[in-house]
């Protein structure tokens, strides 16, 4: 059975960054990248709406991990990003513009079918793409470029945790009713 059939049943499946997506353009030289697909909870929702829906399902344990991360990286002089699910619920989707903060990330690219969010610090650049793909699926791609040894050290615990967090959040999203 093909990947599309699995996605349509709500499974979280590993994938490749969609060809021609903003995420795929950032893959060359990446230290880390991954991509997962799920059935879109609402085929009519924009990519930004889908991102807000997924991040709105952030479990409490993820925000506790983010609080611990912020405490520890603060000792190394890195940014406190806040909590993953800390979104401005009062701001309408239509008012978001390139450069705006959307939770812990800045909005880098915005179209109805793909949103690119990211953050940069002295140790690494991270980019997250939410991209609508054919057959009613959505892909979530993460691309990380490290700048120095601190970035590589940072990624040691983050890589396995990232995979757990993304899969957990996407499974939660897939099990919810439409937007």
For the structure shown, list the relevant keywords:
179 residues; alpha+beta; 7-stranded antiparallel beta sheet; 7 strands; 34% helix
Explain what this protein looks like in three dimensions.
- The protein is of the alpha+beta class and 179 residues long.
- It has helices at 3-8, 22-25, 47-55, 60-75, 149-174; strands at residues 13-14, 32-39, 101-102, 105-110, 114-120, 124-133, 137-146.
- A 7-stranded antiparallel beta sheet has the order 1-2-7-6-5-4-3.
- β5 and β6 (124-133) form a beta hairpin.
- It is globular and about 45 Å long.
- The protein starts with a helix and ends in a 5-residue tail after the last helix.
- Mean pLDDT is 84; it is low at 1-6.
Concise account of the structure shown:
The chain is α+β, with helices and mostly antiparallel strands and 179 residues long.
Topology:
Blueprint: H1 3-8, E1 13-14, H2 22-25, E2 32-39, H3 47-55, H4 60-75, E3 101-102, E4 105-110, E5 114-120, E6 124-133, E7 137-146, H5 149-174
- Radius of gyration, in angstroms, nearest whole number: 16 Å
Q: Order of strands side by side in the largest beta sheet?
A: 1-2-7-6-5-4-3
* Helix and strand element order: HEHEHHEEEEEH
> What's the helical proportion of residues?
25-40%
In percent, how much strand structure appears in the residues?
25-35%
Kindly, what is the distance between the CA atoms of the first and last residues, rounded to a whole number of angstroms? Answer: 28 Å
């Amino acid at each position: 059975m093909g990947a599309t059939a699995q996605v349509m049943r709500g499974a979280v499946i590993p994938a490749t960054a969609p060809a021609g997506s903003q995420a795929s353009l950032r893959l060359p030289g990446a230290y880390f990248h991954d991509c997962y697909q799920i059935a879109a909870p609402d085929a009519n929702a924009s990519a930004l709406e889908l991102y807000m829906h997924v991040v709105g399902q952030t479990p409490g344990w993820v925000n506790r991990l983010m609080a611990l991360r912020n405490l520890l990286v603060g000792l190394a002089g890195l940014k406190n990003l806040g909590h993953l699910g800390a979104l401005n619920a009062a701001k309408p989707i239509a008012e978001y513009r390139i450069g705006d903060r959307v939770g812990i990330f800045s909005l880098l690219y915005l179209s109805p079918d793909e949103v690119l969010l990211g953050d940069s610090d002295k140790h690494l650049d991270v980019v997250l793409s939410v991209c609508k793909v054919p057959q009613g699926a959505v892909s979530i791609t993460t691309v990380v470029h490290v700048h120095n040894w601190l970035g590589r050290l940072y990624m040691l615990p983050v890589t396995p945790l990232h995979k757990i967090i993304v899969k957990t959040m996407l499974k939660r999203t897939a099990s919810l009713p439409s937007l």
